[in-house]
Amino acid sequence: MAFWRRKKEDRYITLGLNESAQKPSEEEEQAPATASTAAPDTRLEPPAATRGAAVGAEASVTEPALEPVPTGASPTPPPASESALTQGAKPEVIESPRPSAAPATPQASTGASEKRPETVAATLPPPPTTTPARTPPAPARSSSFSTSILGLDRSIEDLQAEEAALEQAFAARFSRAIAKTRESLSEKIDTVFQGRKQIDAELLDELEEALIAADIGVPTTLSILETVRRGISRKEINDVEALKASIKHELLTILEDSKKGGVGDETEAPEGVVPYVIMVVGVNGVGKTTTIGKLAQRIKAEGNDVLICAADTFRAAASDQLAIWAERTGVPLIQQKHGTDPAAVLFDALKAAKARKSDVLIVDTAGRLHNKSNLMAELEKMKRVAAREVEGAPHETLLVVDAVTGQNGLEQARQFLKVAGVTGIVLTKLDGTAKGGIAVAIAKELGLPIRYAGIGEKVDDLVKFEPELYVDGLFN
After folding, report:
1. Are 212 and 192 in contact (CB under 8 A)?
2. N or C end of the chain, less CB within 10 A?
3. Contacts of 406 (CB under 8 A, 6+ apart)
């Protein structure tokens, strides 16, 4: 599945392999005719006397074409009609000796020349015969498409198989990332269900404790159990497997419904709006700068032009850290000296993105706590500057949340939503915590979609959060 669905207009390349050769345009056809009519013949004619002499010379010098004679054979005598021409040109022709390889004797040659001198004069020495050297055959060259970058040497089945393999690899990595959350939730649920054949009130109480321990949250847990009790009363849930299926369905419904709030997909913005501005916010230490580097790499890898704006001028090492990621990913970086107004840096970055015709602009902001009013006011100023330069900007405001913080991350998201207008969540360090259930709590209580998830430290360890993969990974 594609990481970034928003593509620029020239995403389709027409190779023209099946198109016929184009006919020359009317302008090209008329160009030679115009040139011939416009440019007069400027050649100078010779004087009349010289022209007459030249014509006479041409008439007298014109000789019939002679075919070469094979080596060792006597020359073919010319026809009678050619003898008169040869006789007239006799004083001007220089007689050349016969080759020594001729089979005729000297007496015979002399006699023939005395009887018919015009024949000797008109006969040219036979050309030397040379046997052309046989060139060795050229070595077989490998096809130029054997290592085609465009994949022209591969069938559509091969490309589809490769894409499926990549999707399976990302799914496997995502499943491994939530292994600790799965162990915390699924094993506790299995312990609750172990040896139970009937669903009673005690089982539901233990199930409630297991869901809360996974940081799914009290309101979300109560909502899930209410749905379960309703199914039990309707005789829809009769055994443990049906209970697990009901919990999975409820979790998936919560995550899917959260896409209706905020920005669930980058294609929601009009295609003509360029650049697509993403503003990244969050408190210090949650992996905000690392997330920006990974996000730029994944978007750039799909053929988009990306630009990073280092608007975190409050922390001294922020620009240096972001510069390392920009160099590692090969993405241009717009930055200024420490202490510069972040709104001014963003203004310069927007101008640069327009000049470069960049597709995506990712804006780094200063790490700030949700209770710092001055930093929150600064964030509002940056949003006004972006909206004035680009229609609808910022198109996404992503809040980076450390999954290890659990319910504290939920409180951060709640406060940032009030001030910064957060449209989506990025869960980092999901592979190092057993509290991955915070994704369900954020989706349920705030109605914000989980856009991306950090599953490692490598540059490509940022994946799109897929609700179905997440829920299946918790129980399988």
Report:
1. no
2. C
3. 215, 433, 435, 438
8 A C-beta contact, residue 427 and residue 454: yes
Q: Give the span between the Cα atoms of 454 and 458, in whole angstroms.
A: 10
- Choose among 352, 358, 355: nearest CA to 303: 358
Q: How does DSSP classify residue 70?
A: P
Beta strand 462-464 with 450-454 is antiparallel
462, 295 Cβ separation under 8 angstroms: yes
Query: Tell me: the pLDDT tens digits for 15-55?
Result: 454 444 454 444 444 544 444 444 445 455 555 544 544 44
Four-point Cα dihedral 419, 423, 429, 435, nearest 10: 80
Q: What is the CA radius of gyration of the chain?
A: 44
What are the beta bridge partners of residue 400? Answer: 426
The identity of residue 473, as a single letter, is G
Describe the crossing of helices 438-445 and 218-233 by its angle, rounded to 10 degrees: 80
DSSP class of residue 69 equals P
Helix 179-193 to helix 240-257 angle (10° resolution) is 140
Q: Which residues lie closer than 8 Å to 261 by C-beta, 6 or more apart? A: 446, 447, 448, 449
- Which tens digits make up the pLDDT trace of 126-158? 555 555 555 555 444 444 434 444 556 677 888
CB-side exposure of 365: number of CA atoms within 13 Å?
Answer: 25
What does pLDDT average to over the chain? 75
DSSP state for residue 272 in the 8-state scheme: T
Mind listing the pLDDT tens digit for each residue in 394-416?
Answer: 999 999 999 888 788 888 888 88
| Cα dihedral 34, 37, 38, 40 sign | positive
Q: Backbone dihedral region of 429: left (phi > 0), alpha (psi from -120 to 50 degrees) or beta?
A: left
DSSP 215-261: T--HHHHHHHHHHHHHHHHTT---SHHHHHHHHHHHHHHHHHHGGGS
Q: Please list, in sequence order, all residues whose beta carbon lies within 8 angstroms of the beta carbon of residue 390, skipping any fewer than 6 positions away.
A: 273, 274, 275, 277, 350
Neighbour count for residue 102 (Cβ, 10 Å): 18
What pLDDT is attached to residue 117?
44
